Amino acid sequence: MWGGVMTDTWLVATLxxxxxxxxxxxxxxxxxxxxAHAIPNGxxxxxxxxxxLGFNTLVGLGVCAVLSALGIGTLGRRGRHxxxxxxxxxxxxxxxxxxxxxxxxxxxxxxSLLFGEVLGVSRQELVPVAALGAVxxxxxxxxxxxxxxxxxVPEIGxxxxxxxxxxxxxxxxVVAVATTMTVPxxxxxLIFSLMIxxxxxxxxFTDRPLAALPLxxxxxxxxxxxxxxxxxxxxxPIGFFVGTIGALAYGVGRGWMAWRRxxxxxxxxxxxxxxxxxxxxxxxxxxxxx
Amino acid sequence: xxxxxRWVFEPGFFSSQxxxxxxxxGAIVAVVSGVVGIFTVVRGxxxxxxxxxxxxxxxxxxxxxxxxSPVIGFVGLGVVAAVVMDLIGARRxxxxxxxxxxxxxxxxxxxxxxxxxxxxxxxxxxAAQHILFGSIFTTAPGxxxxxxxxxxVALAIVALLYRPMLLSSVSDDIAAARGVPLARVGxxxxxxxxxxxxxxxxxxxxxxxxxxxxxxxxxxxxLTKRVGPAMLLASGIGVGGTWLGVLLAYDSSSWGSSHExxxxxxxxxxxxxxxxxxxxxxxxTGRRS
Lengths: 290, 289
Hints:
heterodimer, A: 290 residues, mainly alpha, ABC transporter involved in vitamin B12 uptake, BtuC, disordered C terminus, B: mainly alpha, 13 helices, 0% strand
């Protein structure tokens, strides 16, 4: 479990968890769960094409992920955002499946692209993953203030000259880059679990963005580490553990919220707030961005 | 003329048993998806609809594991997940995507496990491909009555909810003031949605069924804003797209040299997607919304 090959796995998975924790924090903040789910699936088509045509998978993934991010961003401007996202996503999946259906030799690849193959990570993958991860974090550091502003109070952002459309596009491209580096490791479907579960759980525990961000990374790390260990022990797919632990973390978070609210407002029964998550809680102002 | 006919319908198209089953199943599924899809798009619940497709992946692979008919798995787990999503906050605009995402994430995990167990149990990797991307040609004729039954349930729910849903789609506040039990309407609609998604999973595969649900409905709503006619139109587009897809897939086995043919689901999705693009990008209809 700690031997030579596994060292690379632990390293890559740790990188993936950090990126997913940070990017996912903004995904949850912006309520962009659907695009975050669609982009990895678009990338799936790119990877499928790369397998069939025989060039580097990472290139196929990257090109397709960025293209689908730009497509969702621009098409969504004209019509209903969610409809366009849904259709584009399914079209890309179908294209990927059609490409791979050509020969049965690709069927294991379909499975590993969708659900991940963390135990097969090699040293060569370490460098591109680290490089792309650094690009992601750098872009988010530059975008931090305008992104915060346009996520929480888009009207004020617009007034201050932050174009929400351009921010949206830039953010979707960051998600696409994060996807490119993570899909080969955790799979197209599971990177989504990792981007939603831990950040959503983190937001249950604290109202302050600067505290929620590291907490989100920490939960993502814990999720991935436990998932790898469990997957190694049981031989079951890592995706199962990532998905379940992510959902469990969110469940614990919701429980914690309910317990705390029960303690603070006991008697006055603020029933209007039940079911709401702290999207509009007072702590979430742009000033917290520092 | 005859050559053209031969070229459009490859020999044997109308006498093939799997094609008959595929055409009948495709039509039923497309009608149910079209009707339910209209409300899905109007209410902005495409993401929930899509999430349910991944839930049905888990359901289908679970059913495969214990040796049940995949339809039962597709629909059964979908209904359970729909109720859970509604309970943890699918109703609130902002918390809704998150609640959907959480259920989605967990069910993808389950699907990964079931598919893995399927492949280790049967020593074939075909199960994953089959459940995820489906093949309407290999469906047993015996599933038709089951599909008809579930389809009628979904249509009955929509008929029952038609007026209150219209009202609450326009404005929740007005609906609540008129005494519409919003919570109950929401849960029931999610159940109808889960049934529709389960059925289309059977036709074009679990993770592609969103196309059949959202595609024709979104196209129809570009052409007309009235809900009743839009439902008819969406059903029509769905049936047309499915049949065209089946025909193209059947013909595709004679294209090229491999004689293998491309998956039918790909053609159905491609036809529906191109139709939507054509309608929404054409200058006359595109500007309206």
